[in-house]
Automatic annotation (TrEMBL), chain A:
Species: Streptomyces ureilyticus
Limits of the Aldehyde dehydrogenase domain: 32-477
Signal peptide location: none
Region (Disordered): 461-485
Basic and acidic residues bias locations: 462-472
CDD domains per UniProt: ALDH_F16
PANTHER family with a match to the protein in the record: ALDEHYDE DEHYDROGENASE-RELATED (PTHR11699)
Key words, A-Z: Oxidoreductase
Record-given protein name: Aldehyde dehydrogenase family protein
Protein origin, superkingdom: Bacteria
Keyword Zinc-finger: no
TrEMBL record, chain B:
Keywords: Oxidoreductase
Coiled coil: none
Name of the featured protein: Aldehyde dehydrogenase
Any one Pfam family match given in the protein's UniProt record, by short name: Aldedh
Organism: Streptomyces ureilyticus
Cleaved signal peptide residues: none
Domain Aldehyde dehydrogenase: 27-257
Entry-linked SUPFAM superfamilies: ALDH-like
Entry keyword Oxidoreductase: yes
Keyword Nucleus: no
Length: 485, 297
């Protein structure tokens, strides 16, 4: 489709970030090699260029890191809350100062557009640390008893879709409440967590309070299963979440899980169409759709289906896919070859099952992992693409006639993480929001996040909340008499 | 024992309580319930896995109306349970004394505390949302509100020892917030739980909100822990080995699990038994803008 405007390239400079050729594990305040000397490469998914070689944690390293965290726990948990708060405020400030550098790094390692890392990920990361810093000396007022206590060592495993933001969601509340941390970033995006380790050093954080172990699933499993871990927090797939729930069964480990989703974005016939289209685009194409709370099912009222789809297709034709470092880019690279293969397989299945596929004319770069924005129409609830989480820029369009039907279809999912409602009628928003079995509901907006706002799922989207006062609970033992040690 | 001219008493047939009705076990099985000195008290239904599945269907059917009832209404009904119990106190004192081998005065203290616990939770129904929910001051033009909602259908493995006070202490918090429950009664001492069903049936509590099963705890709890239409499980009355097995089975659809822990049921509870079976829903609403000329001052 010919564009009225041609965009000149507007690349963000790579020079603000200095990526070392190799990185170690971060244990007890030091960067160190893996016990067995293993390393793996982190590549840029938009170019397949090797960015750095990173030490790969194994079971022995997990044990060493948990010991360091255990040792650090005694002093860290005994610090006055106001002192812990100041460390977190320092970290928040250093993140703000280094945010351009971290945004470029994240875009290189993850493949997402600089527009998103610069304007969404990094501001939210800093805000999250700032928010939980303030809680550290006010925990007795948080509603978890008069003297809530930390749990001990937290083992945390995070995904690749928002590497630094998921780190912040995990580490900030854990430290504020007096726990110490061993965190495993995803194998495709280890770099920003290692830069965070450096920030911990700059902030003067005591050794062992935060330990970072880049590695694969085996390291995550070793961490989750380690007998001296008191708390397990995981964000990732529902299948792995269930495996973790089985692993911690019968132990005293406290568990929170933030898992998959198949969010319904419901558009009623009185919705402001242009705003709804923007919300649909944000809902499923933000971060290439690699978002657990993505609005991956569009439920549109039958009477406006054609009008809405025309507008949506027109809008999708204007999205710019390409160099993630270009400030004009809307759609970046898919995070890995493996994820690209999964998206490709699921969309092929969508076609095979009879849904109708559409993508705008869109030239994909010759190297790297790319997937054009894709719409499926004539989708039924039985289709795989309406049930399984695709975790890619793929929208399945279904229709409904009545609000009851919309609610029934929205809730017809094993998941229950997010949902959207588009209508001008306030009472309908409240009635529908009330009936949706989902942890986060966006009315006339989508994919909004804030450190004060609890986030997490119903049903098989997991349990526990991250963010807000609610997010403290995952890291605290209530001060009930029987809970005293 | 009775003298020759004393009236021959009428024994009670203890039955399950499922969907507001009092069925026998579909299996036709019963087991002997004895007191602490092994004296026969009654036969109790030995519920089967089919009874458990029927109870899930009843609890699921009741969930919509019960969770949709006003919190005030739920509070009224829980208070009504206390009223009904007060009137049948003597029966429960006798049953608890026999079940737990307690003196009459100690059993009476248990029953009094159980009645008071219903009153305590009756008062919570319309307060818990204010305590654990609320507005969130997000950095943007949005009204953002978090509200607790019931998790759904909850399996409750009632405590094995505290056959009535313990039972009430684990059931009341589950239904106070709008969940529905399938209760697996104390295996050895199920009679107070089965009698509680009779009280609930006459307290305006809709059928299916609480379902009471008696029998072998492991036999009934295992299919319930694995059931795909059960959303949560309270393992209070499971021993360590069973609790681990049930928690593993519960992972299959990510049930919320409350692990067994030492509890003094005589103490005033905290709110953890309620929050364990609550979800938090957060809704974002744009606040809009009145624009440049929008000031109404």
């Amino acid at each position: 489709m010919a564009s009225v405007f041609e965009y000149a390239p507007a690349p963000e400079s790579r020079s603000v970030v200095d990526i070392a050729p190799s990185y170690g594990l971060f244990i007890d305040g030091e960067f160190t090699d893996a016990a067995d000397g293993r390393v793996f490469k982190s590549i840029s998914p938009s170019t397949e260029e090797v960015l750095s070689e990173v030490a790969q944690a194994g079971e022995a390293d997990v044990d060493r890191a948990v010991k360091a965290a255990r040792k650090a726990f005694e002093k860290w948990s005994a610090l006055p809350g106001s002192e812990r708060a100041k460390y977190l405020f320092r970290i928040a400030r250093i993140i703000q100062e280094r945010s351009r550098e971290l945004a470029v790094l994240e875009t290189l390692d993850n493949g997402k557009p600089i527009k998103e890392t610069r304007d969404a990920d990094l501001p939210l990361v800093a805000a999250h640390f700032f928010y939980y810093a303030g809680w550290a000396d006010k925990l007795e007022h948080a509603g978890f008893g008069a003297s809530p206590r930390p749990l001990g060592v937290a083992g945390q495993v995070i995904p690749w879709n928002f590497p630094l933001l998921m780190l912040a969601w995990k580490i900030a509340p854990a430290l504020a409440t007096g726990n110490t941390v061993v965190l495993k970033p995803a194998e495709t995006t280890p770099l920003s967590a290692l830069f965070f380790a450096d920030i911990c050093r700059q902030a003067g954080l005591p050794k062992g309070v935060v330990n970072i172990l880049p590695g694969y699933g085996d390291a995550g499993a070793a961490l989750v299963g380690h007998e001296d871990v008191n708390k397990v927090a995981f964000t990732g797939s529902t299948a792995v979440g269930k495996e973790i729930a089985r692993t911690v069964a019968g132990t005293r480990k406290k568990l929170t899980l933030e898992l998959g989703g198949k969010g319904a974005n419901i558009v009623f016939d009185d919705a402001p169409i242009d705003q709804a289209v923007e919300g649909i685009v944000t809902g499923i194409f933000f971060n290439q759709g690699q978002v657990c709370c993505a609005g991956s099912r569009l439920l549109v009222q039958e009477s406006i289906r054609d009008e809405l789809l025309d507008s949506l297709k027109r809008r999708l034709s204007t999205l710019r896919l390409g160099d993630p470092l270009d400030k004009n880019t809307d759609i970046g690279a898919i995070n890995s070859a493996e994820q690209l293969a999964r998206i490709t397989a699921l969309t092929e299945q969508g076609e095979a099952e009879g849904a109708e596929r559409w993508s705008p004319a869109c030239e994909l770069p010759s190297s790297g992992y790319w997937f054009a924005p894709t719409l499926f129409t004539n989708v039924t609830q039985a289709h795989t693409i309406a049930r399984d989480e695709i975790f890619g820029p793929v929208l399945s369009v279904l229709t409904f006639r009545t609000p009851d039907e919309a609610v029934a279809k929205a809730n017809n999912s094993q998941y229950g993480l997010s949902a959207g409602i588009w209508t001008e009628k306030g009472s309908r928003i409240l009635a529908v929001a009330n009936k949706l079995r989902a942890g986060v509901v966006w009315s006339n907006t989508f994919n909004k996040f804030d450190p004060t706002s609890p986030f997490g799922g119903y049903k098989e989207s997991g349990f526990g909340r991250e963010g807000g006062r609610h997010g403290l609970e995952a890291y605290l033992a209530p001060s009930s008499p029987e809970g005293e040690r | 024992m009775s003298t020759v001219d004393a009236r021959l008493s009428v024994f009670k047939t203890y039955k399950l309580y499922v969907g507001g009705k009092f069925p026998r076990s579909e299996s036709g099985r019963v087991y002997e319930v004895t007191d602490s000195k092994s004296k026969w008290l009654a036969n109790a239904p030995l519920a089967s896995r089919k009874d458990a599945r029927d109870a899930v269907v009843a609890a699921r059917k009741a969930f919509g109306p019960w969770s949709g009832a006003t919190a005030y209404n739920r509070g009224q009904i829980l208070y009504r349970v206390a009223e009904m119990l007060e009137g049948r106190k003597e029966q429960f004192v006798r049953e608890v004394a026999e079940a737990e081998g307690l003196s009459k005065s100690k059993a009476a203290a248990q029953v009094d505390a159980a009645i008071d616990r219903w009153v305590w939770y009756a008062g919570w129904t319309d307060k818990i949302a204010q305590v654990v929910g609320g507005g969130n001051p997000v950095a943007g033009p949005f009204f953002n509100l978090s509200t607790p909602e019931p998790t759904g259908v909850v399996t409750v493995i009632a405590p094995q020892e505290s056959s009535f006070l313990g039972l009430v202490s684990v059931v009341a918090p589950v239904i106070a917030t709008g969940n529905t429950a399938i209760v697996v009664a104390s295996e050895k001492s199920p009679l107070p739980a089965l009698s509680l069903g009779e009280v609930l049936a006459t307290s305006d509590l809709p059928g299916g909100v609480v379902n009471v099963l008696s029998g072998r705890t492991a036999e009934i709890a295992t299919p319930l822990a694995a059931h795909q239409d059960v959303n949560a499980i309270d393992l209070a009355g499971a021993d360590d080995v069973l609790a681990k097995e049930l928690e593993i089975a519960a992972a299959d659809n990510l049930k919320r699990v409350l692990r067994p822990q030492p509890v003094d049921y005589a103490e005033t509870p905290g709110i953890e038994r309620m929050t364990a079976f609550l979800e938090t829903k957060t809704v974002w609403h744009p606040t809009g803008s009145l624009g440049a000329s929008g000031s109404s001052y």
